[in-house]
Amino acid sequence: MTNTQPEEESKSSILDDLPKKVLDESYYHGFLPREDLPCLLEQVGDFIIRITQLKPRDPCELILSLRVSDQNSPSAIKTSQLIRPIARQSWEFLHENIILKDMLGEGQFGEVRAGEAVIDGKKVPVAVKIAKTIKDKKNIQQAKEKIKEMMHEARLMRYFDHENVVKIHGVAVCREPLMIIIEMVNGGCLSDVLGSRKGNVDEDEKIENMSLGSARGLEYIHAQRIIHRDIAARNVLYTENRVAKISDFGMSRHGNFYEMSRGNRKVPLKWTAPESMVTYQYTPKTDVFSFSILLWEIFSDGEEPYKGMTSIEVKRMISCGERLKKPEGCPDVMFQIMGKCWEQNPDNRYSMSEVVKQIEDIIEHAYSEESETHSRLISDTHSAEKISSKDDADDLNEPSRSFISQTKRKRRKHHRRKKRHKKSRIHKKSAEIINERKKAKSRHRHMKSSHNVL
């Protein structure tokens, strides 16, 4: 068990010079960013106390944040009254209610630890993202940007509620180090799971759990008007119960359109849509392109896309409309979905709702066929029982050995056939579904040509 307070901070805290009475007040919100204020200060007269550090070496200063009737009017600000103090919200944790444990990962400006948080009076297993306190002048600005990114991520995730999206419990910002408390997912990221179980993840799991689960999570995110911008197997967590969960919203943006500023344009090139490589603009359809590469990773057992190629070669390949080859053993129907997701023209790509529908249809067709096969086998078995019963009417107390053997053979044959059918059911439906779609396209072209003639 580890103390939540870093060693260097325990000697001299930057909060030491601030009045302790204020720090103990329920309306003290610590380093809460101003971007979070609109959801707290709803009515004129609502106020909180928070803290900021204007310059790296300057002492921290307390700030009174107040809702006024007109923020552009100096007189309105001067004459405003403090009416209602706003207490810390359920998603604002005190550091003393967080216990840090084993290290899960570490970077230049932060780390992730396993831990426990007190939620509704109970200790709950959590993962804790911790922003490192950087005092080096060279890195202070980068550290601030990283903290800003962390808080932005927490703000976006706060209202997520979906099985296939990682849940956030809250933040701890009353003092340093700043923390984000998120759902603990035992299992690891999808890329690691695929790598460790290479060759041992069956087709059903890849389609039903990994592909469909990830698709539903991204569909939900898009429904919240959020663009993820970093969809990849490394950013999908996979539980021990085989539930895929979209995670890592550091690059995500609210809205249906986002354009990167010229300052920092680092992007995960191998997962980036061709239009974004040129314009640095992002929409839900750029996420769909990234999702196609995620599908490729799943059916390649976690292989790195474009392995061995340079960034220039990858960019040239994608820009020219060339794509990754079909992974060995990948069902045709799933590769067709990849093809619709990585179309060069974003208008021709599926939406995530269409992706979900397509995968659900594949699974439904497969299970429907399996159910029909199972029913026929049961019916055949019952027929055999009736015939045997008639033949053995002379000795009802002792069923014939031939009947018992026949029934056993039929049951064994049924189980073998069911096992083979389950293993290859997606492949069997691939050609049929593809043919149905080709016929639909042909009908559409015929109707269109008929309309032109008229």
From TrEMBL:
Coiled coil: none
GO cellular component terms, semicolon-separated: endomembrane system
Enzyme class: transferase
Binding site residues for ATP: 129
Subcellular location: Endomembrane system
Biological-process GO terms, alphabetical: axon development; positive regulation of axon regeneration
Region span, Disordered: 368-454
Basic residues composition bias: residue spans: 407-428, 438-454
Comp. bias regions, Basic and acidic residues: 368-391
Annotated GO MF terms: ATP binding; transmembrane receptor protein tyrosine kinase activity
Main localization of the protein described in the UniProt heading: membrane
Entry EC no(s): 2.7.10.1
Pfam families the UniProt entry points to: PK_Tyr_Ser-Thr
Keyword Plastid: no
SMART domains in alphabetical order: TyrKc
Sequence ranges assigned to domain Protein kinase in this UniProt record: 98-368
Keyword entries, A-Z: ATP-binding, Kinase, Membrane, Nucleotide-binding, Transferase, Tyrosine-protein kinase
Catalytic activity: L-tyrosyl-[protein] + ATP = O-phospho-L-tyrosyl-[protein] + ADP + H(+)
Name the UniProt record assigns to this protein: receptor protein-tyrosine kinase
Organism field: Wuchereria bancrofti
